[in-house]
Each structure stands twice: as structure tokens, then as C-alpha cells.
Amino acid sequence: MRILIVEDDRLLGEGILAGLRQAGFQPDWVRDGLVAWNALQAEPFAAAVLDLGLPRLSGLDLLQRLRASGSALPVLVLTARDTAEDVIKGLDSGADDYMVKPFDLGELAARLRALVRRAAGSATPVLEHGELRLDPAAHSVEFRGIPVELSAREFALLHELMLNAGKVLTRAQLETKLYPWGEELESNAIEVHVHHLRRKLAPELIRTLRGIGYSMPS
Ligand code: CA
């Protein structure tokens, strides 16, 4: 699940990047508002972590621009300014949640999971699909009541397919959802992960639409 971190402070940005990776996300990090805006137009991020004081385009301006464009992307605002007025302004500009610096990385990850889950229309933390259960917080999967060991990428792929059950995801869409910038990607990577998931779970759980993509039948 790709998360865009927009933070101009180097230490903080590096810390959040490492923390979100550790929590099983695929985060990308940019350091100014305009680059963030362009990235959000180009890539299918599941959520953004947004600092307010940013070069070129402020966090609030970016947020307003995003909402004016019709984007419903979940956005968590990070603010050093803990006055009620700033928090109100952020929420009124379209932020879904906020945290005041300094904050706990585990809590940030948990809040992001909640935002992504609600954006996908699910109120419960654990995703269920027939006899398949996926717990994003525990990073665990069970099929027919038995725990299944998955690699980080297999887990991320299954998570995307479950969030989009009944819809077809193209290989290109899955690649951009699963792989952060600059990461080496074999041309058949998605195919290989799907193959492994079918073997570890059940072949009929993931349908191939030849030349189009993959779907989890709803
Ligand atoms: Ca800043």
C-alpha cells in the first residue's frame, strides 16, 4: 500500500519513511508541496502524510487544491502548530486526521490503516473474503482458519485485491500500487506473486483476465 510522505524536514522524513516501511507500507517521500501535487496526479497513493509548512506550496494549499480537484485521498496532517485554530483549518480544508509533532510512529501507522480502511468503505480492521481473513495491523493472513505465511509483497498484493474485490486490477495498476519509485521491478513480478498466492491459498481465489489483469471474484 503506497503512502506519500510530504515533509521537508530531512530527519523527520527519513524517520517516517523507515517507520512506515517497518509497518508494512510502501512509502515514498517528497520534500516540497509542488512535487507532492505532481506525484499525487501521477501515482495511485492510498493515503498521504502531509506536513503544513512546506516550500513552494504549503500543506494547506496542497490540501485545498487536492479537494478542489475532486480527490478523496485520505490525508493525515502532521503539524508542529498545536493551536486549535491550525487544527480546525486543516480539518476544514479537507484533512481526514491530524497528529501533532512529536508523535509516535506506531500510532501514525495505525491511524493510516484506519484511514485507508474507511476510505475503502470498511469499518472493521480485519478484511474478510469468504474463508480468507487478512489483518493489516498484525500483518497476518488466515485461510480456512489456518495461518498462511506470505512475503511482504504477496501480502501487499493480496491486500489490494481484497480491498478491490469484484473489480479488475490491471498489471500496471498493481505494479504502481505495490512498488515505490526507484525499486527494481521484473516484468513478470506481479504474475509471479499471483502464482505464489494461488499456490499458498487456493487457485480459484484470484482470477486472471488474459491481457487485462486480475480480480478477486466477489
Ligand atoms: Ca515543515
What does this structure look like?
The protein has 218 residues and is an alpha/beta fold. 41% of the residues lie in helices and 22% in strands. The strands form three sheets. Strands 2-1-3-4-5 form a five-stranded parallel beta sheet, sandwiched between helices. Calcium ion binds next to loops.
Bound molecules: calcium ion
Cross-sheet strand order for the largest sheet: 2-1-3-4-5
What order do the SSEs take from the amino end to the carboxyl end, as H and E? Answer: EHEHEHEHEHEEEEHEHHEE
Q: State the end-to-end distance.
A: 21 Å
Instruction: Summarize the main sheet.
Output: 5 strands, parallel
What structural class do you assign from the helix and strand content? alpha/beta
Rounded average pLDDT = 92
Uncertain regions: pLDDT < 50 for 5+ in a row? none
Question: Helix tally?
Answer: 8
Strand content: 15-25%
Q: How many whole angstroms does the radius of gyration measure?
A: 18 Å
Overall number of strands: 12
The best one-word shape is globular
Helix content: 40-55%
Structure characteristics:
binds calcium ion, 218 residues, 8 helices, four-stranded antiparallel β-sheet, alpha/beta, five-stranded parallel β-sheet
List the SSEs and their pairings:
Layout: E1 2-6, H1 10-22, E2 26-30, H2 33-42, E3 47-51, H3 59-68, E4 75-79, H4 84-92, E5 97-100, H5 105-119, E6 127-129, E7 132-135, E8 140-143, E9 146-148, H6 152-163, E10 168-170, H7 171-178, H8 189-200, E11 207-209, E12 213-215
Parallel strand pairs: 1-2, 1-3, 3-4, 4-5
Antiparallel strand pairs: 6-7, 7-8, 8-9, 10-12, 11-12
The structure holds calcium ion.
